[in-house]
Amino acid sequence: MLRPIFDVRIGPEGDIPIGNVRLSNCARLRPARGQAGILMGTFYTDKQIQEAIAALESNSPGIWERMKKMTALPPGPLTEEEELEQGAIVRVLTIVLPQVSFVVQAEDKNEARARLSIDLGNAVRAAVVGDRDAV
């Protein structure tokens, strides 16, 4: 089973990433045939998701691999080191996602950020499954 590293809670203050909570629609995904490990998102295109990943990597090199590592952890309590890593990832997401070009241009920035969070979660899970299948 894959562990989500972040999810979104929709509340009166908007959509905020929170810790180790599952959304009901977070399913395991497999890359479609001919895809490079990232599926087209529910809300955004592959190109937009790749732009967001590039922005994350630009701000914090290696974050994509750290996100995949955290997602691939078996279910169960996190160690102190894993909790620190998860917190660092959430902080980067909180800082970078609102600055991605298509989120900045969105009419409802909170909704755009929440949707991007969902698509990134799906993409990281698809990448983990793709990595497993490649072995």
Task: Write a brief caption for the model.
The protein is built from 5 helices and 2 strands; from the N terminus they run ββααααα.
Descriptive report:
52% of the residues lie in helices and 7% in strands. It is mainly α and 135 residues long.
Level of helix content?
40-55%
Strand content: 5-15%
Separate helix tally: 5
Distance between the termini: 17 Å
- Order of strands in the sheet with most strands: 1-2
Query: Which structural class matches the secondary elements?
Result: mainly alpha
Overall residue-averaged pLDDT value = 75
Radius of gyration from CA coordinates:
14 Å
Uncertain segments: 1-40
Give the CA-based shape. globular
Strand/helix succession: EEHHHHH
Extended strand count? 2
Summarize the main sheet. 2 strands, antiparallel
Helices and strands in order, then pairings?
Blueprint lengths: L6 E5 L2 E5 L27 H14 L3 H9 L8 H17 L4 H4 L4 H26 L1
Antiparallel strand pairs: 1-2
Helix pairs in contact: 2-3, 2-5
Characteristic terms for this protein:
135 residues; two-stranded antiparallel sheet; globular; mainly alpha; disordered N terminus
